[in-house]
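Exercise 7. Given the encoded structure of a 284-residue chain, write a plausible sequence.
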């Protein structure tokens, strides 16, 4: 029996067969932590999937927030992706380097801004190259498009809302950071942040949702989430270091048909850097 996969991921075979289809838009949304010592722009210049344009997660953001990767205004987002040739009616495939790492953030953001047909490439560009698929250094010059945003404010949790959630326990909290950062045994990569997690949060490290850069089948996603103590019949808010890998949990939840989920955009960069927020350590 074939294992059931998420409706939000596409295979390399699927994408390769559609490289000449002008209605399919491809975004290279690779981004890396400093410790990974990988430069996404340089890697894009050195080779990318034919037709892919580079989506800069550091630039397409609210640069006035003082936090990394903060969601831009709908108007700013629309202008940025419009320059990349993307409209909300396109079929959009987003990929990153290792697969199921930073592409889900852009998948989630596009959907939150109103795009309907958005997918993540299983296996990422690393998998694409390893399989000997087409690679080019030619940088496309997309015709500008108009993206009409329809922002879903309910998909995003603010700091004030997050504080209420922690105090009231009104939503389950799923934290995508590594287990040692969650427990407080490992220092945060950004200076000035306390270690630990929000009281009541459950640890769901982002890497547990994929194998070899490919999203796990639905039954394994369900088992992984439930094993962490998350009840799929109840609302969930996701968090991580800076709001990027929290979207991997969003991808897993929505793949399972879970609809009452929201992403805390400030994530630990905001919560852990403040002096007035409660912080727990250890596994609970």
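Solution.
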């Amino acid at each position: 029996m074939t294992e059931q996969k998420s409706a939000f991921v596409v295979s390399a075979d699927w994408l390769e067969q559609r490289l000449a289809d002008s209605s399919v838009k491809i975004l290279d949304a690779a981004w890396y932590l400093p410790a990974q010592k990988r430069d996404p722009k340089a890697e894009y210049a050195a080779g990318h999937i034919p037709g892919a344009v580079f989506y800069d997660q550091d630039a397409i953001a609210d640069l006035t927030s003082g936090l990394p990767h903060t969601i831009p205004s709908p108007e700013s987002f629309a202008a940025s992706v419009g320059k990349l040739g993307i409209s909300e009616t396109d079929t959009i495939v987003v990929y990153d380097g290792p697969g199921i790492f930073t592409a889900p953030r852009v998948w989630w953001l596009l959907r939150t801004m109103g795009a309907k047909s958005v997918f993540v490439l299983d296996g990422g560009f690393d998998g694409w190259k390893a399989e000997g698929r087409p690679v080019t250094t030619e940088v496309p010059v997309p015709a500008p498009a108009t993206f009409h945003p329809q922002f879903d404010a309910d998909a995003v949790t603010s700091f004030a809302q997050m504080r209420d959630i922690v105090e009231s326990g009104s939503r389950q909290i799923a934290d995508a950071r590594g287990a040692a950062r969650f427990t407080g045994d490992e220092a945060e990569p950004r200076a000035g942040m306390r270690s630990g997690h929000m009281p009541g949060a459950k640890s769901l490290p982002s890497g547990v949702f994929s194998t070899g850069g490919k999203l796990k089948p639905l039954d394994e996603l369900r088992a992984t989430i439930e094993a962490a103590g998350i009840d799929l019949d109840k609302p969930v808010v996701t968090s991580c270091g800076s709001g990027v890998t929290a979207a991997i949990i969003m991808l897993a939840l929505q793949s399972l048909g879970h609809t009452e989920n929201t992403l805390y955009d400030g994530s630990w960069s905001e919560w852990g850097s403040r002096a007035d927020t409660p912080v727990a350590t250890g596994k609970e």
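Remark. Residues 176 and 211 are 16 Å apart (CA to CA). Students should compare their own answers with the one above.
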